[in-house]
Design goal:
The protein is α+β, with helices and mostly antiparallel strands. It has three domains: 9-61, SH3 Domains (SH3 type barrels, Roll), CATH 2.30.30.40; 75-187, Vaccinia Virus protein VP39 (Rossmann fold); 221-403, Hnrnp arginine n-methyltransferase1 (Distorted Sandwich), CATH 2.70.160. 21% of the residues lie in helices and 35% in strands. Strands 11, 12, 13, 15, 16 and 17 form a six-stranded antiparallel β-sheet that branches. Strands 4-3-2-1-5 form a five-stranded antiparallel β-sheet, with no helix packed on it. A hairpin with a 5-residue loop joins strand 2 and strand 3 (43-48). It starts with 8 loop residues before the first strand and ends with a strand. Bound molecules: ligand J7C. The site of ligand J7C has 18 residues, from strand 7 and helix 8.
Length: 405
Amino acid sequence: MEENGEPPEEYVALCNFTANGSEQLSVNRGDRLIVHAKPSSDWWWAELQGVKGYVPASHLHQGDAAEEEEDPWQDEEYFGNYGTLKLHLEMLSDKSRTEACRQVIVHNSASLQSKVIMDLGCGTGIVSLFCAKLAQPAAVYAVEASAMAQYTRELVRRNTCEAVVTVLQGRAEEVQLPEQVDVLVSEWMGNCLLFEYMVESVLLARERWLREGGTMWPSSATLTLVPCQAHSYYAEKMAFWENTYGLDFTPLQPLARQEFFAKPKFSHVTARDDCLASPHDVLDLDMYTLQVSDLEEMEGQFQFCLEKSGQFHGFTAWFSVRFESLEEGGAAVELDTGPNAEPTHWKQTLFMLDTPIVVHVGDRVQGSLILRRNPVWRRHMTVTLNWDVSGSVHEAGSKTFPMWR
Ligand code: J7C
C-alpha cells in the first residue's frame, strides 16, 4: 500500500476485529492505532505495535475517552425523539399501519377474550386501547420507554380503559410484569425493516415474558427487493451537473455520487411503473424462532428476470409483516409497505448504483443482499448489494451502504 503523504493520525479501536488473511490486522477494543492511509471509505491501512494491515474504518474512532463512552444504543436521543409528538403523529396518521393494527384486534376479538397482552413500545397506546375497546382481554401491559408514557397513562384514563390497560414506563428490557403474557404485540419495524433494531427488545421480551405457546404479533416479517429506475432522483442529483446553466459541471459528479448515493435514500416512493421486474423476497423472519444473534448478519439471494427495458438505477427495498390469526380458519392480517400497496409512512428505501446500467426486457439480475449490524452503534447497519446483470449487457458490481453509521 502506497502511503500517500497524508500525516498519520491516531485512532482508537471501538471493538474487537479479527483479521481475515495476512493483509488485515486484528485489533482489540481500546487499541490505539496509527492510520497511514484511507484508500477507501471502508478499509484503512493502519499500524499497531509496528505491524501494518487493513482495518475496517467502522471499527475505528478518533477522539477522546468521553466520546468512547457514548451509549451505543443512543437511547437518550432515540427515546427523546419518541417523547415528542412528531413521530407519533406520523405513525398514527399512517392509515395503513394503524388500520392494520385495528383489523388484527377486530378479527381476533373472540380469541383475545381473557388473554393477557404485552404491547411493547406502545407509544400513545393506540394498540392497547384497541385491545381494551374492541376485545375483552384480562389485562394489557403497555410498555413505553419514552416520556410519552405519562401522556399515554392519561389517554388510558380519559378513554376509561384503566381497568384493563396498565402503562409501564421503562425500557422493555428492564420492566417487571406481574405475570407472563399470552400475546406479545409490538410495532417495531424500521426503515428497511431492521434499522433501529428495536426487534432486539422484542426478542428479549419474548424470552422473558411470552408464555410457552403464546402469540407473537407480527408473527413474521419479510424484506423485499426490486431493481428499479429512479429517473427524477438521478436527474436532480447527478445528471444536473452535465449542463448547469449551459456549463459543464461534471467534475462535481464524483462528489455528488459520494454525497447523495453513498447512503440509501429513506422515504423514497417507487412507482409501480419504475419497478423493472417482479419483486423478490430476500429475507423471511419468523418471529417465534429468530434469535438476537441472527441479527448480526443476514443474507438473502435474489434473481430477477427484467420485465421492462430502461435505466437500472438501483434497488428499492421494503418490508411486509403478517399477524397470524388466532381464530379457527381466520386469515392473517398483512401490512405491506411496498409499491403495490397503499403508501405508508415508511415509504420505501432506495439504493442507488454509482452508475446506471441500460437494461432490456429478458435481462437477468442476480445477486445477494447482506445486512450487517454495526458492531458499535447497535441501532445502525450496512446494506451490501452484490449484483450481476446478464443478457443484453454483462456487468457485475457490489456496493455497501451505511445506514447510517
Ligand atoms: N422499550 C420500551 N419502549 C420502546 C423500546 C424499548 N426497548 N424500544 C422502542 N420503544 C418505543 C419508542 O419509544 C417508541 O414509542 C416506539 O417504541 C417505537 C416504534 N418505532 C418503530 N420503528 N416501530
